[in-house]
């Protein structure tokens, strides 16, 4: 079988370490009747062991050649191959209780994570391998150097756990960075603090646009409309010091003031 040349434009680094593959599949713990979706199956490093545990698997692959290869290798009743860009794909057509997995290309990881927020109500859990630096930002706590827009937006919708690191030599070609595996479990509706994600996104984006500034200056003309003492936010606070709960309260305050376009 002809080998496949990794394509830089797709950020392709193929997982080849059997021990790492086994650890990831063990963390996912697939069951036969799971509605499993794999993003970027590549050369089937995860696809093959997942299929051994599942009745059916759906994969989303942007690379036309790899999609064609997968169709040749597997029967359609066992593997559905969707040749599409995960960044624009409508995951809602795949059903409910989705379990989404993948070794995500570093160059699209953040935008893809934001795209998937739209489908969180349809998702049971997500297991992704990403650049470790991105995972550290995803799970970061307030007042830490890694805490930022990605941390707040994802933690407002998911419970996240960093599972383990994966070294560069586990891939071909090896990336220049260490990877990590993260588990993302959507929060129950009762635990979601902000019902309007678009509003929260506006507030968080403005707050972290100038993260070194005190929040009261960084929010510009919104600041006078906020009851800072009522929200329990210190006058000297910077965006990176606010918890997800405080961002939720700040968003509600600005929604009530009518300054957010939603």
Automatic annotation (TrEMBL):
UniProt keyword S-adenosyl-L-methionine present: yes
Keyword set includes Methyltransferase: yes
Main enzyme class: transferase
Catalytic activity: adenosine(1518)/adenosine(1519) in 16S rRNA + 4 S-adenosyl-L-methionine = N(6)-dimethyladenosine(1518)/N(6)-dimethyladenosine(1519) in 16S rRNA + 4 S-adenosyl-L-homocysteine + 4 H(+)
Main location: cytoplasm
Residue ranges constituting the Ribosomal RNA adenine methylase transferase N-terminal domain according to the UniProt record: 20-188
Subcellular location(s) per record: Cytoplasm
Keywords: Cytoplasm, Methyltransferase, RNA-binding, rRNA processing, S-adenosyl-L-methionine, Transferase
MF GO annotations: 16S rRNA (adenine(1518)-N(6)/adenine(1519)-N(6))-dimethyltransferase activity; RNA binding
Entry function: Specifically dimethylates two adjacent adenosines (A1518 and A1519) in the loop of a conserved hairpin near the 3'-end of 16S rRNA in the 30S particle. May play a critical role in biogenesis of 30S subunits.
Family: Belongs to the class I-like SAM-binding methyltransferase superfamily. rRNA adenine N(6)-methyltransferase family. RsmA subfamily.
UniProt-recorded name of the protein: Ribosomal RNA small subunit methyltransferase A
């Amino acid at each position: 079988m002809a080998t496949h040349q990794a394509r830089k434009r797709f950020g392709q680094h193929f997982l080849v370490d059997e021990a790492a593959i086994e650890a990831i599949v063990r963390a996912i713990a697939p069951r036969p009747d799971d509605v499993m979706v794999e993003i970027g199956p590549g050369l089937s490093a995860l696809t093959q062991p997942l299929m051994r545990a599942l009745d059916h698997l759906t994969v989303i692959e942007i690379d036309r050649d790899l999609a064609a290869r997968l169709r040749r290798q597997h029967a359609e009743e066992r593997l559905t191959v969707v040749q599409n860009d995960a960044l624009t794909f409508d995951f809602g057509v795949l059903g409910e209780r989705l379990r989404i997995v993948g070794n995500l290309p570093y160059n699209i990881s953040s935008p893809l994570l934001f795209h998937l927020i739209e489908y969180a109500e349809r998702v049971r859990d997500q297991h992704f391998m990403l650049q470790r630096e991105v995972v550290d930002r995803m799970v970061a706590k307030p007042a830490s150097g890694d805490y930022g827009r990605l941390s707040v937006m994802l933690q407002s919708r998911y419970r996240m756990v960093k599972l383990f690191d994966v070294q560069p030599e586990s891939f071909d070609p090896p990336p220049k960075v260490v990877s990590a595996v993260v588990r993302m479990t959507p929060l129950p509706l009762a635990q979601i603090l902000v019902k309007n994600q678009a509003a929260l996104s506006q507030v968080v984006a403005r707050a972290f646009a100038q993260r070194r500034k005190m929040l009261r200056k960084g929010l510009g003309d919104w600041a006078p409309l906020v009851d800072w003492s009522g929200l329990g936010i210190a006058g000297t606070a910077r965006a990176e010091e606010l918890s997800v709960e405080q961002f939720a309260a700040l968003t509600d305050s600005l929604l009530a003031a009518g300054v957010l376009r939603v």
